[in-house]
Protein 1
Amino acid sequence: MITILCAGSRGDFQPYIALAQQLKKLGKDVRITGSKSFEGFIRSYGIDVYPIAADIATLKIDPKLLKDAGSSDNPLKMLLTFNKMKKYGIYMVNDYYSACEGSELIIYHPGCTIGYFAAQKFGIPSVLASPFPMHKTKEYLSVVMYGKTKSNAVTKKLSYALIQGMLWMASKSSVEGFLKEKFCKLPDNFGCPFEKHTDKKHPALVSCSNFVFKRPDDWNKNIHQSGYWFVEEPHEYTPSHELADFLKAGEKPVYVGFGSMTSLDKHGDLAKMAAEAIVKSGKRGIICGMGKPANLPKSIIAIDSIPHTWLFERVSAVCHHGGAGTTAAGFKAGVPSIIVPFSNDQFAWAHRSYDLGVGAKPIPKKELSSDRLADAIKFALSDKIVANARSLGKKIASENGAVECAKIIVECLEG
């Protein structure tokens, strides 16, 4: 049994579900460990689940803290928020460790470092699987500072110390407390494990396209990046009659949706602003996950959640918050991006989209207005940006990230 330790929101689980799907195809038994609130979602893809009891609801995490986490728009705010969140981790570590028992290999999200130490205790391989590049390199800034500061030797070094330090800080105290209580001492090499994945029994995997951030030449050879990990939907999505009719009624619409960001606080103004921007741009539009503003014109439809893999190929451009998974889905669809970053690594994906010439200039949430969004839509739909986005989509389609990384994991067991 291969056990994958994961944490985060629905979008955070999807790359790991993709990895699990490919491992199953290679004949491996695999399960994902995560919050019980995602059990049904994970099982819908045919993947076994080891649910942990502790989650946002049962831990009664301060709503203000969650809001702060969703609006950390600079490295200092991120650091402070991660420091406050770490106290909740101790309630999850015991369940994560129990999930590792009886496994032949552990794959862990960088927010679940207990996986590294559990594998060490059980004498089995561990694999760090990251949803973004996070290993030290001299080639570019990490995703917590990319686009926010000038790139030079000092800032690049600092940016990786920052991203690894924040992720380690989020779990260190809980892992340390658990190991001391269970074994009465810490392992001799106790410390941040991310740069310790340097051999075939302890590789690191990254879900990212080499056409978005090229794999750095100065990485250890056992850090593998072969493309994004995209899930394979178990069933063909069937849209509502209303949505199907809308899509057929005219030119491809612009998609606007901000995912989990809109669940952190009331954003009634966001839906209204999006509708106004679409009208000002002269385009048709789809507003997703923000309710239905009053007096919507016939050129705009409001919908709830929908598979990005299905919808993004049917729209002219995608406007979103810049989550790593949503960004990847937009890039793969080959359509221009308009990214409105709210927090954390979202700013990096927004700036990268612009730097690659496949999207509009980032509009931070604090600076968003209907006029600015309308202008960004017009810019994104210019011929050059449309052509660049289409080209990038074709390149990303040539990669098989989840397939290649699953093979690395199997080789890790067989070698």
Protein 2
Amino acid sequence: MLTPLSAETIALVQATVPALAAHGQVITRTMYRRLFVREDIRALFNQANQGDGGAQVHALAAAILAYAQNIDNLGALTPVVERVAHKHVGFHILPEHYPFVADALLGAIAEVLGDAATPEIIKAWGEAYWFLAEILKGRETAIRGQLLQLEGGWTGWRAFAVADKVRESSVITSFVLRPVDGKPVLRHRPGQYLTLRFGPAGAPAMKRNYSISCAPNGDHYRISVKREAHGNGGSRFLHDQIRVGDVIEATPPAGEFFLPDVPQRPVVLLSGGVGLTPMISMLETIAADHPGLEAHYIHGTLNSATHAMHGHVRSLAKRHGRTTIATFYSDPQLGDAPNATHDVTGYITADWLRANAPIDAADIYLCGPKPFLRGLIGDLARVGVPPDRIHFELFGPTSESLAA
């Protein structure tokens, strides 16, 4: 049982809110600089999200500020704790790693705030950090214990061979992954992701999260990856260097974004671009396991060249019989035409959804780039969809309120 934080500690942490709002990103950049002095600790992180402009710097700054603002109402942070715990399980961050983060964070606060970081402030933040750390460690231990109790479950890194590689569009390729040990794999929840570790021999390993794009089956996983022209090269390495037969490593499926085992309402699935990947997992599951469920899948992409898995989605809808499909092209190419290659030219809007899908009665699942999510989540909230029926997955760290 955790000892509650004292009123004095809470007051001291809350007093730092203005400083955190003003200097939060400098503090987190400084923290990572201090933390990554150790190469073994640096290797735990997805370096694609680090650096001065890295999304993780902004996400951590926002999380620290939110913690300070809600330290007397930690129930408000439960969704964040759950998300972080799943990320930590995915990246195989263990209890013994927490002291390094504590030292780096407290040192960064002291360095950036200078004389304002009194011994009392540093002591209070140390107590607050370890209070939250114990909550996270407890949740992560529970998740790992649950994984080991399930058929095919494991913890840590496990070797998978690339059994197949399929080009799905001009920018998306699928990879079928089978365990090298030949044993069963954990049946994931439709919508969850894998954390992969891979890279060229002799170079630091890259770690990336990729949504699983097939239904749970106990035998293999499939990921469908967009080749990004810019960035730190994880997707390009998979597209250009990985071949059938190559081996990569994965931690168990993780994530709190998934279709319920027994959906209680109709479902509306909304995706933009490569955000279709968890939706394919959900659609395959709906077609196989939920014959009576009303489902609607609305997908937005540029055009027919970038439109992945179109035929597969149509076949799933036909097989299920109660799934309707609509596709939006925002930048049709020559030869693309409404009612032929796609249904609507333009972008998915809440007004279109209200006229064509049961958004007042359904659970709504969204996945896609940040502008796609920000626009639709805000629009859905404005037309009266309750927040507890809007479920979303963002690829990468969440650095701000998407409903703002």
